[in-house]
Each structure stands twice: as C-alpha cells, then as structure tokens.
Amino acid sequence: MIKINNIPNIEHRSFSLQTRSAANGEMYVEGYAALFNSTTTLYEVDGVAVKERIGYGAFTGADITDVIFNYNHGGKVMARTRNNTLQLKVDSKGLLIRARLDGTEEGRKLYEEIKGGYIDRMSFRFTVAHDYWDTDKTRLITKFKKIYDVSAVDIPAYDDTSISVEKTLDEQKRELLAKLDKAIEFENKRKQFIREIDVMLQRRV
Question: Residue 152 and which of 20, 81, 92, 99 are 20 to 30 A apart at CA?
Fold first, then answer.
C-alpha cells in the first residue's frame, strides 16, 4: 500500500466515471479527471465565493511517471501508468483517464460496482507548481507539479470539482484566504498607484 497522506499540499478533485467493456473481457473505466477553463466554486466564506479554474497547458511538464488507480485513495493498486493499465491523455477538454481493471480481483469487483451505479465518482490527487489569484477571487492553476493517483470514490468529501487537501478544511481555508488577501492588496496598491499618476499628470496640465 502506498502511503501518501503525509505529503504536504496534496489536493484532490471529484469527477464522474463511466465503464467500457471489450468483447475479449477487458474491463475499462474512463472519465475526465480535470476540465480546462471551467470555473468552479470551491466554497463560500462569509458570503464570498472562492473559485478555481485550471488553465490550458497546466499539465505540461507535470510528473506523471507513476500514477496509480485505486479505491478511495487507498488499498490495493488496480491499475497504474507504469504497466500501461492506466492511461492519461491531455486533449482539448482536459485530462482524460482510462483504467483497465480486469487484472485483479479487486479491480473486477470495483468495475461491476461502478457499472451498477454504486460508485460513480473519481478523484485525483495532485500538487501544484504554479497558481495565482485574479481580481474576481478565482484561483487559476497554471501548472501542476505531480499527479499521484486517480481513484474511484464512493462518497466524495465534497461535490463534483470540489477541493480537499490532506489538512483540515479550516487550515485550507486560512491558506487560500491568505493568498486571496495578498492578491486583493496588490490590486488595491496598483489602483492607488494609477490614481496617483493621474493626479500628477493633471497637475502638469
């Protein structure tokens, strides 16, 4: 079992899963682990919506050398990129994953549960290399650092395209709000500087 819970700043998102079967008995699940340029609300604090968007090219250069597929981010590995049973593909929509699950007993059981609708969400874990906040309180992820896993999950911690980290939600909110405050402070200083320049120019007229 791979333990990654103690790695700082790991985040994950939840998305829907679909099943695909082949005539030779191969069992696949697939879906988009991330969608580009799709703004989602992470949560609200005092009526203020904190949002996020993944920019085009965010997966370029990300470490995807050994990504695994499992259940609820734990237990036995059912597919992985290293043996080609898990495929990750970036297209115009986002990050598409395709996992072959018939190689293990656990994988075959999970496939049937997904097919039956008992499990219908997928979550992926990652760390971020670069991001910033724009003026409408939206976090833009411009580059991922590493993708750790994609996982079938029964009850996501949050709704689709929501956020979670290996910290408490309060800690996460404090960190994101601190970044947001810095972005707002920078924007306010920029506007003040522009106003001061305008005043100086008017005095010269």
Answer: 92
pLDDT digits (tens, 9 = 90+) for 187-200: 887 888 788 777 77
Residues with Cβ within 8 Å of residue 147, at least 6 apart in sequence: 59, 62, 63, 64, 67, 88, 124, 125, 126
Asked if residue 117 lies in contact with residue 111, where contact means CB atoms within 8 angstroms, the answer is no
Report CA dihedral (85, 90, 92, 94) to the nearest 10 degrees. 90
Enumerate the domain spans of the chain: 11-166
> Where are any strands of DSSP class E within the chain?
11-16, 18-21, 27-35, 40-45, 48-54, 68-71, 74-80, 86-90, 94-100, 121-133, 138-153, 164-165
Q: Look up residue 55 and give its DSSP letter.
A: P
What pLDDT, in 10s, does the model give residues 13-63? Answer: 555 566 665 557 788 888 787 888 888 777 777 777 888 889 999 999 999
